[in-house]
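User: I'm writing a tutorial on reading structure tokens. Could you give me a worked example: one chain, its sequence, then its tokens, then a sentence or two explaining what the tokens reveal?
Assistant: Sure. Here is the example chain.
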Amino acid sequence: MNTTTRTSIPERLGRAFGRAWRAYGRGERRASNWLVSKGAPRAGATALVWAVKLAVLGVLLYIAFWFALVLLGVAVAGWAMNQHYHDDDSFELQYPTIEELRATPGYDPNLYNDTSHEMYQDD
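And here are its predicted structure tokens:
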């Protein structure tokens, strides 16, 4: 039986996330200290770092908004394509037969190319 404990994948991911977060914090402090060393006041350097953070957050929210809008449009288009309309069997295009046309008043066989009618004239 093996007595060594193994780290699970979620624990590894958590540790990696923690290392990345600490590295980000160190980089932020290093950038702030660099600004102070160049003559910027400490409050100004802190405000600049926060302004960059808010700008990045704004860009991410802007991208997320348009991504969500496109996904919503795709979902609505999919829903619209999935709609089934019942065919009304009683509705049918009914074209009159030639006998019904001949029975109408003012029937002209030349308009319908009715060559079998006695009044048809070929010009």
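What the tokens reveal: The chain has three helices and no strands. The helical segments are 9-37, 42-81, 98-103.
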